[in-house]
Write a structure and sequence with these properties.
There is one protein chain. 67% of the residues lie in helices and 0% in strands. The chain is mainly alpha-helical and 139 residues long. Helix 2 runs antiparallel to helix 3. The radius of gyration is 20 Å and the shape is elongated. It has one domain. The structure holds zinc ion. The site of zinc ion has 8 residues, from helix 5. This is TraR/DksA family transcriptional regulator. Pfam families: zf-dskA_traR. It comes from Pseudonocardia hierapolitana. Keywords: Metal-binding, Zinc, Zinc-finger.
Length: 139
């Protein structure tokens, strides 16, 4: 992590200049997403404490299958929101530290179009796929 080499590599690509210009807007967007996810999580966890009120099942949610389905939906939503929040925090941290726009695993440049569409991206496509286990050799 040498700051001067980072600065010079920034100047090598038009894409990097775009990134520097767009960084404040991307940061705003990420902070909006973070607020949304934190609110969503707080909401989900509050419902969790109340037990069964997520989709208005009321007393019938004490029924085994319905309660189990409800718990599964909620668990999926909570884990999805947590994962999204972690991605957002990671991207924001990399904006502060200077690694934003580069893969955090292999340091390859992440295409501008990808960052513009999904500002939380911190892995290149290859590393993303291997992180998801898509490239696994089995079956
Ligand atoms: Zn990579």
């Amino acid at each position: 992590m040498v700051q001067s080499s980072l600065a010079s590599s920034r100047r090598q690509h038009a894409g990097a200049r775009w990134l520097v210009r767009q960084l404040p807007a991307l940061r705003d967007e990420l902070e909006r997403q973070r607020d949304f996810r934190e609110e969503q999580l707080a909401h989900l966890l509050a419902h969790d404490e109340n037990g069964t009120s997520l989709i208005g099942y009321g007393p019938r949610a004490t029924d085994g299958d319905a309660a189990r389905a409800l718990r599964e939906v909620r668990a999926l939503l909570v884990s999805g929101a947590r994962r999204a929040l972690a991605d957002i925090e990671l991207a924001l941290a990399r904006m502060s530290e200077g690694g934003y726009g580069r893969c955090r695993a292999c340091d390859a440049g992440i295409p501008i179009a990808v960052l513009a569409a999904i500002p939380t991206t911190t892995l290149c496509r290859v590393c993303q796929l291997s992180a998801e286990g898509v490239t696994s050799t089995g079956s």
